[in-house]
Write a structure and sequence with these properties.
seven-stranded antiparallel sheet; two-stranded antiparallel sheet; single chain; 9 strands; alpha+beta
Amino acid sequence: MTNNNPYNFLPFQPTGRNETDTANTYAPEDMIKIYEQQFLIQVPEAQLTEFLPALKSFYDIDNHTLDVSAIIFDAIADASIIYNHKIKVGRYQILAGLVKETIEYDEDNKSDSGTDGIDSNDSEEAQAYTLECKRTFFINDIEMPYYFNLFIHGDSYSTLTKQDTFLEQIYWFVSDGAEDNERLEAINAQLGSLGIRAMDLTTIYEIVNYVEDSIIDDAMIDTLNKLLDDAE
């Protein structure tokens, strides 16, 4: 008996046909899932050339539909595709209150990152604070917690990441800058245990870049500003 769905494509109900009656149309949320499957379904190398035609045949769509699905994903999806992995940023948590820190201002030792959104006195006398935080990420829908200490001084901030959770260990692997094959194999072994396919160095670096860019968002900045206002 022939298997009409050898790649286990998700079944979706078409909403109709396109204007030229050459392809099915689907709801936007279903088109996002169709788009994601192009990258997230693991396909044996020998079947790579057969995969995309099989996907188009299963959904009865054409290349234009796939192009539209990519546009919809970019416009409304709350995730990113990094090579063959989907990563999504989740909610943040502030785990404790602001802790005052005493520092000596040093012109040659400024914070290594910052944001224009956090409001504070940027003079040498500005009070410095630290704050214990957590940000949740999802890789292929698997939850990945990420804990960090946030240091705020004036209009700048920096983060210090722990090394406890799996995602934090991936961050430090990249931060160390050494191409350690044993550590990479250990990372991929743990990914495999979570049902996530292996990553090469390029993918891991891109994942960490995404994490760094997403740790602090506008909603968290608003909360931080309120905490700083209340502390003054």
